[in-house]
Amino acid sequence: MKILVTGASGFLGRAVVEELQETFRVAALGHQHAEGHIRSLDLRDAMAWRSELEEAAPDLVVHCAAYRDPDFCERYQEETRRLNITPLRVLADSLPPTARVIFISTDYVFDGQNAPYREESARHPINFYGQSKLEAEDIVLERAQSVVLRIPLLMGCGPTFDQSGLIAKMIQSVRSEELAELDDRILRFPTDITDIARAIRFLIESNAAGIYHATQSEGKTQYGWAMTIASLMGQAVDHIRPVDATETRIAARPLNSQLAMDRLQRVGFVPQNSFEHVARKVLALES
Ligand SMILES: NC(=O)c1ccc[n+]([C@@H]2O[C@H](COP(=O)([O-])OP(=O)(O)OC[C@H]3O[C@@H](n4cnc5c(N)ncnc54)[C@H](OP(=O)(O)O)[C@@H]3O)[C@@H](O)[C@H]2O)c1
User: Which residues of the chain register pLDDT less than 70?
Assistant: First the structure.
């Protein structure tokens, strides 16, 4: 099977390529950070994207590329449409009906009022990032045999400390003596990128179709997770203050968008890597 991965130079995409290339023929696309085996293609260029799909003729596309900062998406809505929605329309129009798509979506399609959310729960995004993903989901779901995989906040380790996302940032914040304010209102369910990559392999190999959720079950606020890291490090945290950051952001955030993982769990998939496990691995990279 020939698989095309978009967003392969991103946090999740790298882990997806690593997981899939053991078994499948994988072609990887990135944009500004593309290097090595990852080719650069601007997905906002519809003609170039269409030609790529026609020439590569993949059996399956794992679509990770997106703008994912809710504040950016809120401020630059037309630009967000150009990457988060339009390339999905090109994809749907260019691929033969037999080709499958696995589209990476988000818990932000929900409003946070009624968690946990099941795969069939009604969507109601409260920011434009969530709205852009909802519209892209609808395009993907028009195709039989395609998958929408909703995921929460991502965490991951490496390859370097600086590439370890939110955990590296929290370790730096705990380590530093500088006064920091961390949100203590919004519940987050950080889930490891290698677990999500395994879920994607599982969905491919089981010929899954429709909507799936993949998530860790433990939720804490940003402040709560920082306290977990501080206790792993055995470090005092008098310089970190819990705050309600919801008022100061450009885009609204759901307060609790916990996903229920019914469909994947029913077929035997469970995430393996807890926050503590990933945090210990990132701490080991620190020196
Ligand atoms: N990170 C999270 O916590 C989170 C949570 C829920 C859902 N998601 C979803 O998971 C997916 C992956 O997220 P991520 O954290 O891996 O994001 P990321 O690290 O920001 O990576 C985004 C990817 O999109 C590519 N890209 C950006 N502009 C592009 C363009 N014009 N043309 C082609 N490619 C372009 C980037 O390429 P270059 O870097 O090479 O420019 C990069 O490979 C996204 O769909 C996101 O919405 C993420």
Answer: none
